[in-house]
Amino acid sequence: MRAVAVPGRWVWGLSGLATAAVLIIPGTRLLTTTDGLWNRPSAPDTITRALTVDQAVTSLDVQSNGGSVQVMPGAVRHVQVTEALSYDGQDGGPPAVVHSVSGGRLTLADPACASSGCTVSFAVIVPSGVAVTVATEGGPASVAGAAGANVDSGGAPMNIAHISGPLTASTEGGSLQLSDTAEANVDSGGGPVTAAQIDGPLTISTGGGSLQVEGLTGTLRADTGGGPLLMQGVSAATATASTGGGSARIDFSAAPDTVTLNTDGGPAMLTVPGGPYAVTAESDGGPQLVGLATDSSARRSITVTSGGGSLRIGQSAGHSSANPGSQP
Q1: CB 77 within 8 Å of CB 152
Q2: Which end of the chain is less congested by CB atoms within 10 angstroms, N or C?
């Protein structure tokens, strides 16, 4: 272990890690007039430092108390870590940061910042095949190129891309941008979600936030809890969606086996290719139109209920109905 001495208290120990750079920027100290009429809070001191993990890493666990976390893939043999520490130098030196490797799992954490005003932001470059767990407690999170991921931003925005394995994401009200993942289980807790090119099952709850999806091949289970839902380019064999009063539009690019859509008062629009379908449509008095071939004995089935909202089921663009009807 090699440590670089800096002014103030520095508690930092690790095994198998090498420090590449350390930069300290002193903050502006407390300014006080001689008569005590005003105080100006000091600007935080900051440190940026980089290190390389010499040990083999197959999984990564980053725990930040309010700092941002960015994980990205790179053409590297060893994990590269850059840390930005922000703290009040009047209270002592930089906060201690945990770096440890056990059984191929690299842990990065800033436990000292859980009860103080400091933050540590992590930017991590990983080789291919690394699974990632991230929790930021309110800091923005960005993860790309992982073999699988479990991410919780604690209310902050999140950006997830190019995940080849299972993904679990929770934003607790923050927004989520999701793209090019194999499968995903998402809860935004009220935040808006935008997803594109999901190549596996998608289970998602937005808690009132909007949901927009472009391109989905796997099974869909979605509940927006009142938020609007817009999905295009869906080729899922099975889809179940509810909006709790929000509007819903789902456009299928391939004929589904089973679709269930419930808007609880919001307008519902569903377009599918091919047919015929066994269709159950109930608008509870709202305007209703079914414009595709229907057959009660058809293998493929569609059920749409709107709870008083307008209801429309039709053919996807480029397809025509051989036997449309207003109600099966």
Answers
A1: no
A2: N
